[in-house]
Design goal:
alpha+beta; 5-stranded mixed β-sheet; disordered N terminus; 5-stranded antiparallel β-sheet; 66% helix; 23 helices
């Protein structure tokens, strides 16, 4: 394929087209991929042959055994081919397919001769084939050991491991030969098959076994050591891959546990077969996940849970066995009371035992989770004792999760962004993990450290109360600052309004009244001598008095509109009629409103209408008043340009302070191009 791809002549083009017609991957085939497909075809041949034999002569036990083995072989082959397609040069793919082939051959070896005995029509196996099939376990052991040696990238950890890579198949082949030429009958069911290669002297055969069996065990241990070496030297991704394979390897002690359970419950080790089936299925699945999607799930969490429940099972079986034995000694081996007592003791030990073993497993297998949850618990304790505050959550999680860049953000009410514990804005991406309480997001945790996303979700759930405490404290602090700021603004506005009133009174009504007093004094002095036109002077004084009264009314109208004397709703109707834009009124039935609330509502409507007329380029305004037992809700909606906001020094800021002084809340929603909605919620319980 490499030569075809590199050539450019007409003949080469023709060859490439022909190859592409026969096999679309011919130009990109690597030898691990080719080997995987070849072994996949061999697996298919063995499985089909065995299925035909079972259909002809198999009993129920044969069919179950062959069916399980076929499922394991087919699953392992499919996973090997998947890796071969995704990672064409990775040697792990043909190793998985080799493992599947050995499983299929071992199953065939165990079932074919008994079936042929029952059904002589099945063809006999040549002695050479029997000699090859008889020691299939050696190759399964070698395949698994080589898998660990080349896992996960298909390369050796270092050049010196080549001795292990060559030694495993060499020793396996040597064991195969020695077992074939060992004097004496083969193991059942092939005890009557003749030895095709002759026999070695008995002492020589035993000597080879004494050397070869420990050698292959040592090579297997070396493969495990190579995996541990990769783990210690690897980064986070490589360690996660090794943990996936270690997770599958836990099926081996699980097989021992099943064998124990079988002996305990039924007196046989038949359940061990289930364990081996799980083992030879779990290893390929874990290998495929580790190579293609090692971050699919939090492997540390799965590993910790698996270790915990395995340990719980072992201990509970021990407790149950000891209790059953003690009860049998005291009450008799067939005693129902002894069995019930053993069961009750086991059940009572389950809950505290699982929690304790989970903590131990977390410390050993999942130290990051253990450290994080322990740090959160310790922070709760420190807060209750007054030694720390919830604001220390950020620093605590940085240390526990080994990420100095970790950030905890707190979401404030009516704010789409986040702030930190110092009330400074922080920006989070979409990868931030939300902190939820009662279905509402109150914060977020952002980390790119070694913690997995699943662990961050667990930490976020455990930190919910602390995040809510910090958020509420920030909210109270912000409310106090806003109240202080609003108080300062109201005082400033009050001083400004006082100076304006003083100026208006001084320049207007006060001057007129002074002039009026001087005119009346002049008329009084010249009332008898007729030297001054007293009638004209009195007429002028009356006119000035009327002007002063009008100016005083205008000043008083600035403090409280006189139209409110008839009630809020008539005053708003008059205001709407005098507006420069058409106003759609939706006013609830007239109800008594406290005078200070009515004044505030009137000014909210007046200011909102003025803003819409002056700044919004609106064509129409909607005014709606809703009144219930506790609140007066005022809504003014225009269809203008939008973009309004409550800015310091603006009219809306003054309205917000006025509404806040009345115990209410002002909201402004004004998206650009979508108009402006001003909403005031005023308390008016009667």
């Amino acid at each position: 394929g490499r030569h075809i791809g590199a050539s450019t002549g007409p003949f080469s083009v023709l060859v490439r087209r022909y190859a592409a017609t026969i096999c679309p991957y011919a130009g990109a085939m690597s030898w691990p991929r080719v080997a995987s497909w070849v072994m996949a075809l061999l697996v298919a041949s063995v499985v089909i042959t065995e299925a035909v034999a079972v259909a002809v002569a198999g009993n129920l036990g044969n069919r179950v055994y062959v069916g399980v083995a076929a499922c394991v072989a087919i699953t392992t082959t499919a996973l090997g081919l998947l890796i071969a397609e995704r990672r064409p040069t990775n040697l792990v793919a043909p190793l998985l397919c080799w493992m599947a082939l050995v499983v299929a051959l071992v199953s065939f070896s165990d079932t074919y001769l008994p079936m042929r005995t029952r059904h002589p029509a099945l063809p006999d196996l040549p002695p050479v084939v029997v000699a090859i099939l008889m020691v299939g376990w050696v190759w399964l052991y070698a395949a698994v050991s080589l898998l660990m040696l080349f896992f996960p990238d298909g390369r050796l950890p270092s050049p010196r491991w080549i001795y292990v890579a060559v030694g495993l198949p060499a020793v396996g082949l040597a064991i195969q030969v020695v077992m074939a030429v060992t004097p004496g009958p083969y193991d059942a069911p092939y005890a009557r098959v003749a030895h095709p290669f002759g026999d070695l002297p008995s002492g020589v055969a035993v000597g080879f076994k004494v050397v070869l069996f420990p050698a292959i065990v040592a090579l297997g241990i070396a493969s495990v050591i190579s995996l541990w070496t990769r783990y210690r030297r690897g980064d986070g991704a490589r360690r996660a891959q090794v943990k996936w394979l270690a997770l599958a390897a836990l099926a081996l002690p699980g097989t021992a546990i099943l064998s124990w359970v079988g002996f305990l419950l039924t007196g046989t080790n038949n359940l061990a077969g289930v364990g081996f089936a799980v083992l030879y299925t779990a290893v390929p699945i874990a290998t495929t996940i580790a190579i293609l999607r090692h971050n699919l799930y939090d492997v540390d969490r799965v590993l910790s849970a698996t270790v915990t429940y395995s340990a719980v099972t072992v201990v509970l079986l021990g407790v149950f066995g000891a209790a059953s034995f003690a009860g049998g000694v005291v009450l008799g081996k067939d005693s129902v009371v002894a069995a019930a007592g053993a069961t009750a003791i086991t059940a009572l030990a389950l809950a505290p035992l699982r929690a304790r073993l989970q903590r131990v497993a977390d410390r050993r297998v999942y130290p990051l989770r253990s450290a994080a949850l322990r740090a959160i618990r310790d922070l709760h304790t420190s807060i209750s004792m007054g030694h720390a505050g919830p604001e220390h959550l950020d620093d605590v999680l940085k240390v526990a999760l080994e990420d100095p860049d970790l950030r905890v953000g707190f979401r404030m009410p009516d704010d789409a962004g986040f702030v930190d514990a110092n009330d400074e804005p922080v920006e989070f991406g979409i990868d931030a993990v939300p902190v939820m309480v009662s279905g509402h997001q109150i914060g977020a945790i952002h980390s790119h450290g070694p913690a997995s996303e699943q662990l961050l979700h667990e930490v976020a759930a455990a930190s919910g109360l602390l995040v809510e405490m910090v958020r509420l404290r920030l909210e109270v602090s912000a409310a106090l600052r806003e109240a202080e700021s609003s108080r300062s603004r109201l005082l400033t506005l009050g001083y400004q309004e006082r100076r304006r009133l003083e100026r208006d009174l001084h320049d207007g009504a006060q001057q007129r009244l002074v002039t009026l007093g001087m005119s009346l004094r002049l008329a009084q002095r010249h009332l008898g001598d007729r030297t001054v036109d007293v009638d004209g002077l009195l007429d002028e004084s009356v006119a000035q008095l009327g002007t002063a009264v009008a100016e005083l009314r205008e000043v008083a109208h600035g403090l409280r509109p006189s139209c409110l004397d008839d009630g809020l709703y008539p005053a708003l109707s008059v205001l709407a009629e005098s507006a420069a834009l058409p106003i759609d009124l939706d006013i609830a039935a007239d109800r008594a409103v406290p005078d200070e609330i009515a004044t505030t509502a009137y000014y909210v409507v007046s200011e909102a209408i003025a803003n819409a007329v002056k700044h919004a380029d609106a064509n129409r305004i909607g005014l709606r008043i809703e009144h219930d037992l506790d609140n007066l809700r005022v809504l003014i909606q225009d269809d203008g340009r939008g973009g309004a906001s409550i800015r310091p020094g603006s009219g809306l800021a003054g309205l917000s302070d006025r509404v806040a002084a009345a115990g209410g809340t002002l909201f402004v929603r004004s998206a650009p191009g979508r108009g402006t909605l001003v909403e005031a919620m005023l308390p008016c319980a009667s």
